[in-house]
Amino acid sequence: MAAYPQLSHNAAFRRLWWGQTAGFLGFQVATLVTSTTAISVLQASNAEIGVVNAAQLAAFLFLGLPAGAWVDRWRKKPTMVVANVARTLALAWIPVAWLVGVLDVLQLIIVSALVGVSSVFFDVASQSLIPRLVAVDQISAANGRLEASFQVTRIAGPGIAGWLMGLVSIPLSFLAASLTYALSAITIARIPVEEPPSERPTDGGLFSQIREGIAFVRSERLLGPLFLSIAWASLTTQGVFVLTPVIALRILGVSPSALGTLLAIGALGGIAGAFLHSRVVTRLGVGRTIVWCYTIGSAAAIGLAIAPYAGDYALAVFIVANVVMAFFGTLYNITQMSLRQSLCPRPLLGRVNATFRFAVWGAMPVGALLAGWAADYLGIVPTTVLFIALSLTAGIAMALTPAAKLRTVPLPHPVKASEGH
Q: For residue 334, which of 153, 141, 129 has the smallest C-alpha distance?
């Protein structure tokens, strides 16, 4: 077994960490600017906002499973670099289209879809690369650092996006996201990692390898029962997330730059969650951390629906809801992702990660579309309440799985890829 340095001295992981951080920043800027462009510049309907949001996530639904099999055949680092270059070029088109006066909702949807396709391959490759850079007992800590960076960018990203939208224009702010993806590509290209050709799967065709990933998840006694509840959680919470900026901009009447500040403040909860993760898991155990943190975070979203009726306290309620959601959501995300990575044998990492991301991220565009459509018919606040209630049922489902009783993360299964049939 290869010897790995401690994370603080691991140059390969450090470059992945910084490259990911740059990409996280680009994601946060692009996400807020895309929503704001649709809402405030193009005056999109609630249903169109749902489609724009769904477009970036739809690739996980349609490409999530084959991407895992392909990534298991490819070297991870070049895959991540190419994906970042593609995201750089796609986002750079928006300000060009706006400057020449041809930007419309359809182009925003197309660019979002292209970014989503690139993100599928980047994310699957990234999750499969981490266990090659760190020891098994360092995976949770590595994910914690990456999640901490993600939460830091949840503060910096909206703040930077809001500042840029006030300084230049909303569409021109896409250039910042484009540049951060370029920086991420350069940093990740410099990761010192050996990816020998012998690790390329040779045990069947594409669909055979896809079936292996699905079969492993279905047969794994901890991951299998958790799989569907996590997918349902993803669908329902995305319905809440897609309506969050709509509530702020159209009901609370905040400006685009102020929205960036509000979301940045809310993200402080995610920072706290990332840094307290190890202590919380040690105290509660893996299973209870997953169930309790998801459920509490979902329930806290009710503050988003209360804010429009809170009068002078509307913004305070909106911020508190986002802080609590970010804190418990971060604890949940780190724990369930670390459990998945730790249980999976290396030859199946790409396929198993892709299977979960197919369910988790593939459910998101469905939630976004349903929330946008429902908001046009039921209203924004009633739809938000509906999706919060639905999200709580996922917490109940998680509590009924064997993983809910898990105290610590087990060692990975000593199986070969061919045994996934």
A: 141
